[in-house]
Every structure is written in structure tokens, then in C-alpha cells.
Amino acid sequence: QVQLVESGGGSVQPGGSLRLSCTASRGVFGNYVMGWYRQAPGKQRESVASITRYGSTDTANSVKGRFTISRDNAKNTLYLQMNNVKPEDTAIYYCNAAPRPPWPWGQGTQVTVSS
Predict the structure, then answer these.
(1) Strand 10-12 to strand 109-113: parallel, antiparallel, or no bridges (unpaired)?
(2) Measured between alpha carbons, how far is 31 from 15 in angstroms, rounded to an integer?
(3) 1: buried, middle or exposed (CB in 10 Å: 19+, 13-18, 0-12)?
(4) What burial letters (b/e) apply to 31-52, b meaning 16+ CB within 10 Å?
């Protein structure tokens, strides 16, 4: 069973930056397209960005130009660089394979954007 652990969240002011990380308990990253997802209060979980095993990326329009997804397959680690964050980015952020997450969700990491 793959276990996912997200980290790096916190409280940040609008316009600030955060870098999220996600690690997996087993060396599965290299075989899958990986993605970041988020769930805001009262809303459904949505896809934020995804990255193929070769580094091709896809980013949601709402974060395009501000968020960058990357991966280090050797370290089984996925990253999300968040720049110029906005209050509407407030959510719990999760990682999983994409586009159809096959593994149990981790605990996520909370990102709160407010002044």
C-alpha cells in the first residue's frame, strides 16, 4: 500500500510563496503521472497540476503562471512551487497519481492565504 505524505504548507500573505513537497512510501513515482490536488472548504477536490514521468506538465488555468509542478523520481518526491498566492488558493493540498488517483489520500498540507 502506497502512503503519501505532503508537507510545506502554512500561512502566507497574498503575493507570497510556498513550496510543497510530497513523498511516497514506495518507489512508484517513476511509473506514474503525478499530480497535485486541492480541496477548499465546502468545495470538491480539484486538480491543480500534473507532471509526466518525463517532465511534461499541465496546470489548471486558475494557477497557470503562478504554480510550478516538478518531480525528483530518484527521491520519490513531488513538488509544487506556489508563487504570487491569492486568498482563493486557500485549501488543503494533496498529491496522488493522475488523472485517476489510485492510492489512499494522505493527510494533505494546509495552505492559508490571508492578510
Answers:
(1) parallel
(2) 35
(3) exposed
(4) ebbbbbbbeeeeeebebbbbbe
CA distance 61 to 70: 17
pLDDT, tens digit, 9 for 90 and up, residues 66-95: 999 999 988 889 999 999 999 999 999 999
Question: Could you give the C-alpha distances from 104 to 23, 95, 115, in angstroms and in order?
Answer: 13, 10, 33
What is the mean predicted confidence (pLDDT) over 35-54? 96
**Dist. CA 85–CA 100, nearest whole Å:** 26
User: Which element (helix H / strand E) includes 102?
Assistant: none
Q: Determine the Cα–Cα distance for residues 81 and 2; give it in Å rounded to an integer.
A: 24
Chain centroid to Cα 60, Å, comes to 12
